[in-house]
């Protein structure tokens, strides 16, 4: 996010509340409510993170060099149809990796909001910590960052794009069945 266009405190707070509500809705497993928070043309993706060694001592450590780019294989690449199908599988108990369902707590922090390229759109950067517990001993903590585009349509905020970048290069959880 290279732009640095400020937004009003009211807009900042509104976006923060949107993200906090999204986390609560997902933790409460209200997947239909969550789907209602998404734009119909959503792009929801998680690139791979790779270990990168510097070429020399003077080589800069740009985080983007560690992230797979467009056209490269990532961990997730969803749209509204595949997100709806994933949510339906969870709600119907058809997802083997989530039967019984995980108990989750999402914490969202470090929220930065900038004006988007179009009127009524916002570029939003945030960090997350997702604690997942399932069955008796299945427990993991997932950390990462998100870059979102949130748009206002008919006065309502909707998530139009989400790029999820995990802090880990190796997944410490059994499946990517959760939403970030």
* Main structural class: alpha+beta
Q: How do the strands line up in the largest sheet?
A: 2-1-6-5-4-3
Give the helix level as a range of percent: 10-25%
Task: For the record, give the distance between the C-alpha atoms at the N and C termini, rounded to a whole number.
Answer: 19 Å
Outline the low-pLDDT stretches.
none
Radius of gyration over C-alpha positions, nearest whole angstrom? 17 Å
Number of helical regions: 3
Overall form: globular
Overall pLDDT: 90
Give the CATH level 1 class: Alpha Beta
CATH fold type = Nuclear Transport Factor 2, Chain: A
Key descriptive features of the protein:
180 residues, alpha+beta, Nuclear Transport Factor 2, Chain: A, 3 helices, globular
What this model shows, in words?
20% of the residues lie in helices and 38% in strands. The chain is an alpha+beta fold and 180 residues long. It has one domain: Nuclear Transport Factor 2, Chain: A. It has a 6-stranded mixed β-sheet. The chain is globular. The model has no long low-confidence stretch (mean pLDDT 90).
